[in-house]
Write a structure and sequence with these properties.
mainly alpha, 8 helices, globular
């Protein structure tokens, strides 16, 4: 049986998407997601997201990658999608957002999404920020 999405997965959108996804999220993150889903029902979803979200949405002109990362933080806080947020915090750093900007995005989202959502998000963000940048007191380039 032929998968009706096979053309989509081998398209220019998938190629563009995998390139952007790797640039933003890092090879280790992308490889782990693809390997975790290889040969399973989730493989189709991974390919679909790569082609559509990364290949069609993230590749659009009009917003810089750092702006898209900032938006993602707010949306993922609102959705309480903390597992997705974990990867996108790392991606936000790769796209040039600072620790302060990431923290402020979560503080800002608390006013619209509520304290419980922001607290859950900050827990995840803190883990990633410490892993990537070290503890806050060690950082000297931001106040």
């Amino acid at each position: 049986m032929t998968n009706p999405n096979d053309d989509l997965f081998s398209s220019e959108r998938y190629d563009a998407g995998i390139s952007i996804r790797r640039e933003v999220m890092g090879d280790d993150f992308v490889d782990a997601a693809l390997e975790r889903n290889a040969g399973s029902d989730g493989e189709t979803l991974q390919k679909h997201i790569t082609a559509t979200v990364w290949g069609s949405v993230w590749s659009r002109e009009g917003l810089a990658k750092r702006d898209r990362s900032l938006l993602n933080i707010g949306m993922l806080v609102a959705l309480r999608a903390t597992e997705e947020l974990r990867g996108h915090i790392k991606g936000a750093l790769a796209n040039g957002l600072t620790r302060t900007e990431i923290t402020e995005a979560i503080v800002h989202a608390s006013g619209y999404c509520g304290a419980p959502a922001a607290l859950s998000a900050m827990k995840v963000a803190q883990e990633v920020l410490v892993a990537e940048l070290g503890p806050l007191e060690e950082e000297s380039d931001e106040a």
